[in-house]
Specification:
49 residues; mainly alpha; 2 helices; 0% strand
């Protein structure tokens, strides 16, 4: 599973000629990074007037 592998391994697998990981895995990674950034913004703004 890709959650247990380093990011470098995921990127190398994505760039290879193998069919997986495909666009779905890449989209999931990008979506989770976006959600993490939203959480970071929320954490910075909590408690501010």
């Amino acid at each position: 599973m890709y959650l247990d592998q380093p990011l470098r391994s995921f990127l190398e697998d994505t760039a290879s000629k193998t069919p997986t990981p495909g666009g779905g895995s890449v989209a999931a990674l990008v979506g989770s990074l976006g959600a993490a950034l939203l959480c970071m913004v929320g954490n910075f703004t909590l408690g501010k007037p």
